[in-house]
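Course exercise 7: structure representation. Students receive a sequence record and must write out the corresponding structure in token form. The form below is the worked example handed out in class, using Glycosyltransferase RgtA/B/C/D-like domain-containing protein (504 residues). Read each field label carefully; the graders check that inputs and outputs are placed in the correct fields and that the protein name is recorded exactly as given.

STUDENT ID: A-19
EXERCISE PROTEIN: Glycosyltransferase RgtA/B/C/D-like domain-containing protein
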Amino acid sequence: MEKVTIRRYFPSLVLIGILFVAAYLRLNRISEYMTFLGDEGRDVLIVKRMIVDHDLTLLGPTASVGGFYLGPIYYYFMVPFLWLWNLDPAGPAVMVALFGVATVYLMYLVGRDFFGTRAGLAAASLYTLSPLVIAMSRSSWNPNVVPFFSTLLIYLLWRSTVKKEKYLLFWVGIVLGIGLQLHYLFLFLIGVVIVWCALTGWQKSNLRYYFYAVGGLIAGFSPFLAFEILKGFPNTQTIIRYIGSGKDTGFSLAQFFGTMNEVTFRLFGRLVIRLPQPEIWNILRFWPKTFWLISIRILIFVGLGTLIVFRKNLAAKLLLVWYAVVIILFGFYKGPIYDYYLGIFFALPFLVAGLLVALLSKTRAGLVAGLGLLAVLLWFNWLGQPFQFPPNNQLEQSKRIAQAVFEKTGGKPFNFALLADRNSDHAFRYFFEIWGNPPVTIEFPQKDPERKTITDQLLVLCDNTLCQPLGHPLWEIAGFGRAEVAGSWDVPFVRIYKLVHYQE
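STUDENT ANSWER:
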């Protein structure tokens, strides 16, 4: 009786252990390891104004390419966490970490329902320890929650078909609407939904449920849709121009297949087998490179081959559709493809790996081999966990630098400029604003003919000691007018200049 009880509850105990490890790897010392640069500062600045100033928005962050904007849903996700953490930027990072833990559970749920309990546990454990996944689960950024919603979409789509729960198509639409506000690559998943519905039978009796899906999409996308309607669809027009320009999109035979091959290799390699970043890969010796190349190619060949063999199984067929539609659409993209772009099918290689473990475990010898391979992968990924290096402390560094600048203002109005190669000044402006003395933005003469936005002092922050602020063409400096240096101070990582108006 005791053995039966242990066997019955063993998967649940293992799952609890997996979730505990996932929470630890995502939440431990999160404020020390989180990214906090210009983009993160911009986001918390907007959300702070939503909370404190009740300045609500229908517009989200700018997309990484194309010059258009996303929807505002991520900002509304951030609101309760920034408020609960008393405007500390670590709050939204905790939110992303919790989404990451929820994705681990969702991975188990999908794997279990698709291919069995062992597949679910294997997929969840691999996802828990994947270094790339962990890194993306520890900072506040809108693409970092995409894996949760893309996986949820696939699970809802599967249940609507296999369990005959057609009403779930409404929630499929809701998730699509949310996902499109997080990253425009979620558009690829609309293709997945359409192809899947076509393959599983387009019937008149199901027509109303497809309207449910469209209704859900409109509801999920409504905050941004409202902005577009009110403003005359400016972002829609920008997106159409971007796609039609052909600069980053279009068909090129050689590049098409090359991109599909690269994305597939990175999807399985970066996520499951800890493939190094290009800068590390380029300095590796022959044998480590050979090991990675062979291991990843075997996983791809065996994994995708297994899906093809079991394609009559609806779960395997859905994973094939998910992979094929997304990888083909990636083939039309000519721009650089970053790791976070893969968030729209992050779960796929882990579910494939879970399926392989489940198939191996059907025999005693296969079970031993499967568990052995799984243990090796988990150990190998554990060696890449983020705590082996000292924390970057970007949040604390930004706060200290902002404090040093703030003290130089003497509590008086000031203008502010940052001279940096890649960063923006929002992270510092955030602290100035919550401390009650935000910098005055210098407006162009057409908008401010009396030049009231120019104060008596300009604080310039340089990310290296070689920069020369006097005469710099940056508008925040040039707009201040002819100036002279009233003082300069070196603080860790930066130099602060105080400029005042030039006196004859």
